[in-house]
Write a structure and sequence with these properties.
Layout lengths: L3 E3 L1 H15 L8 H20 E3 L13 E7 L5 E6 L10 E3 L4 H6 L7 E5 L5 E11 H8 L5
Parallel strand pairs: 1-2, 4-5
Antiparallel strand pairs: 3-4, 3-7, 6-7
Organism: Actinophytocola algeriensis
Pfam family, one: GreA_GreB
GO molecular function: DNA binding
């Protein structure tokens, strides 16, 4: 899958934000605010131009954007489940890690049962094992309350 993976909700939020930023009267009066606004407009346009919206990756157990990952932090035994996607693709029930984050970079391409290591900002090395990787849509369907 090429491009940036987004949930339909995140895609709609970005489109709405772009409309707001481009609306008449949205021009910032101070130059610095105007530069920030222009930079955000460029960022959103680039995201939307490359967006893959709601298209689940294959259910092959490989970590990639659009997958809900469950990992075990090997030093502590703690487990965490999160969406590998853009921060703008937040889900109320899931933490979101960017594929460009240290954890996301380490896990992308990993298969179930494989271990990876990455460095955190303080220089420590963290080891994680990928326990599960399922497409976002399949995760959402399996976690939906009965009757919805």
């Amino acid at each position: 899958m090429s491009g940036v993976w987004l949930t339909p909700q995140a895609h709609e939020r970005l489109r709405a934000e772009l409309s707001t930023l481009l609306a008449p009267g949205a021009v910032a009066e101070e130059p610095e605010a105007g530069r920030r606004r222009a930079a955000r407009v460029r960022e959103i346009r680039e995201l939307l131009a490359t967006a893959v919206v709601g298209e689940d990756p294959p259910n092959d157990g490989v970590a990639e954007p659009g997958m809900v990952l469950t990992v075990r932090y090997d030093d502590t035994g703690d487990e965490e489940t999160f969406l590998l996607g853009l921060r703008d693709a937040e889900d109320n029930d899931l933490e979101v890690y960017s594929p460009a984050s240290p954890l996301g970079t380490a896990l992308t391409g990993t298969r179930r049962g494989e271990q990876r290591a990455y460095r955190v900002p303080n220089g420590a090395t963290v080891r994680v094992t990928l326990l599960d990787a399922v497409p976002y849509g399949r995760h959402r369907a399996s976690s939906a309350p009965a009757g919805s």
